[in-house]
């Protein structure tokens, strides 16, 4: 046959008559014709086997080159698993997703069907398999195709639900592996984390609304001299995101100690912060006592006198970043170098007026010499939001 196909018709003898041709499909046509329209074009043998070969290698080839519509020059990395539902039985795997193993037939689902059932993508299922979150019950040794059991659908649907709620994969893995009581505690922890994030987003939304309505607020920043102070304080470690919560906690510890000791103190309440933000940073809340010395159980903080830049913020504490924006801008524009600790003085507190009428004095000590012009600092209230 090969000799006949490669011999010009004018020189080839007539083929022998045959009763049966085996191994050929009706989709294959063999013909001899000029390859191009140019009269000088040579006669060649042309067939239409390209489509059949494309289908063959797209389904059975190694490495897999993609579905029949894919270009044979562009390899595919999808492993061919999406095409399983349309592939006829081979290697012990049936068209219907059944696996024949030692004579036993198991009802398994191909990765494509399982993905559609559980509202996940094939890519997600592969990733969950690689990370150990949800492994298939069987992987075909020859093709590498993954197969899932119907009873895995509950875990897969739970994963899809929790991912929709933006839970990290590590948390989802612990949730699936935990006993009911532990699982409930894990989910409550994530609920609290989500509530905290929503609260921060609400604060950002309120500030954006204020900026959209009235533009950047105009704060009057003044330069002056602050006198020396000695404060009785309580200290705590916290992260930038939990400053507001920790300040309230410190106030709740400070005032009862002063009350039990019968020590009078001079308003306002003070909050002290470092210039540089980091996890585990120390903050302090304190007051200036009339005797100049606090009871046992409280720390002592000496605030030296000197030059400071200050401004006053009127409104909720959640909008203090607007005031700090103006204060730090004024410091940097003057070439001044801020010094720790940053100080907040609560002039009018939440027990006296509504949130919109709170009054807070912001104070940042500075030195006039600016040695490192690339150095910039942010108060925790400013950067945490």
Structural summary, described in words:
By secondary structure, this protein is an alpha+beta fold. It has 3 domains: 78 residues, no CATH class; 95 residues, Multidrug-efflux Transporter Regulator, Chain: A, Domain 2 (Orthogonal Bundle), CATH 1.10.1660; 162 residues, Regulatory factor, effector binding domain (Multidrug-efflux Transporter 1 Regulator Bmrr, Chain A, Alpha-Beta Barrel), CATH 3.20.80.10. It is 33% helix and 23% strand. Strands 8, 9, 10, 11, 12, 13, 14, 15 and 16 form a 9-stranded antiparallel beta sheet that branches. Strand 3 and strand 4 form a beta hairpin. It is elongated. About 8% of the residues have low confidence.
N-end to C-end Cα span: 80 Å
Q: Tell me roughly what share of residues is in helical segments.
A: 25-40%
- CATH architecture level-2 label of the largest domain: Alpha-Beta Barrel
Q: Which CATH top level class of the largest domain fits?
A: Alpha Beta
- What is the ordering of alpha helices and beta strands? HEEHEEEHHEEHHHEEHEEEEHEEEH
Radius of gyration: 38 Å
Reported for the largest beta sheet, the result is:
9 strands, antiparallel
Instruction: Write down the overall geometry.
Output: elongated
Helix/strand/pairing class, anyone? alpha+beta
Provide a compact summary of the structure:
With 385 residues, the chain is α+β, with helices and mostly antiparallel strands. The chain contains ten helices and 16 strands.
């Amino acid at each position: 046959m090969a000799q006949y196909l490669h011999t010009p018709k004018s020189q080839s003898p007539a083929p022998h008559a045959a009763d049966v041709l085996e191994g050929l499909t009706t989709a294959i046509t063999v013909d001899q014709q000029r390859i191009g329209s140019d009269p000088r074009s040579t006669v060649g043998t042309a067939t239409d086997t390209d489509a059949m070969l494309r289908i063959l290698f797209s389904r059975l080839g190694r490495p897999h080159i993609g579905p029949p519509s894919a270009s044979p020059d562009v390899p595919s990395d999808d492993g061919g698993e999406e095409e399983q539902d349309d592939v006829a039985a081979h290697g012990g795997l049936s068209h219907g997703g059944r696996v024949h193993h030692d004579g036993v037939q198991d009802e398994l689902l191909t990765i494509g069907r399982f993905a559609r059932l559980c509202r996940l993508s094939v890519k997600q299922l592969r990733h969950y398999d690689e990370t150990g979150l949800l492994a298939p019950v069987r992987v075909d040794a020859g093709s590498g195709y993954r197969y899932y059991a119907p009873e895995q659908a509950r875990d897969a649907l739970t994963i899809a639900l929790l991912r929709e709620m933006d839970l990290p994969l590590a948390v989802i893995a612990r949730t699936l592996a935990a006993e009911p009581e532990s699982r409930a505690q894990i989910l409550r922890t994530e609920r609290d984390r989500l509530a905290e994030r929503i609260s921060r987003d609400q604060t950002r939304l309120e500030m954006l609304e204020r900026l959209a309505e009235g533009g950047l607020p105009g704060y009057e920043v003044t330069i002056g001299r602050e006198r020396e102070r000695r404060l009785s304080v309580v200290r705590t470690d916290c992260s930038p995101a939990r400053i507001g919560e920790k300040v309230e906690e410190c106030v709740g510890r400070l005032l009862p100690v002063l009350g039990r000791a019968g020590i009078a103190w001079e308003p306002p309440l003070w909050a002290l912060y470092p210039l540089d933000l980091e996890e585990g940073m120390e903050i302090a809340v304190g007051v200036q006592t009339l005797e100049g010395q606090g009871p046992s159980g409280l720390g002592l903080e000496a605030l030296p006198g000197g030059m400071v830049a200050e401004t006053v913020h009127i409104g909720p504490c959640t909008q203090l970043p607007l005031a700090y924006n103006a204060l730090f801008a004024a410091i940097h524009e003057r070439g001044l170098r801020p010094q720790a600790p940053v100080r907040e003085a609560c002039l009018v507190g939440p027990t006296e007026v509504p949130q919109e009428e709170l009054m807070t004095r912001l104070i940042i000590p500075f030195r006039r010499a600016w040695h490192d012009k690339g150095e910039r600092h942010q108060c925790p209230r400013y950067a945490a939001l």
